[in-house]
Amino acid sequence: MLIIDSKDCENIDKALKKYKKKFEKSKTLLQLRERQHFTKPSVKSRGQRLKAIYKQQIASGKIEL
Question: Are 34 and 47 in contact (CB under 8 A)?
């Protein structure tokens, strides 16, 4: 549960902005979406490897954006 400390003179918009930022940093929504569907560990590791290869190719200049 996220708790936001708000001062009495603080605007509700500022408190809501703090809450949204804290919620985003906690990555709760990402975890929820990740848990909706099971992905096999082999598929996860393959995706990570492909992502790393792609990043390496960009860094070496083989792929231009």
Answer: no
Domain annotation covers residue 7: no
CA distances from 18 to 2, 55, 65 (A): 11, 33, 34
- Give me the domain span that covers residue 21: 12-60
Is 1 among the domain residues? no
| DSSP letter (8 states) at residue 38 | -
Q: Give how far Cα 51 sits from Cα of 19, 29, 31, 55, 57, Å.
A: 32, 22, 20, 6, 10
The string of pLDDT tens digits covering residues 16-53 is: 898 999 999 999 999 999 899 999 999 999 999 999 99
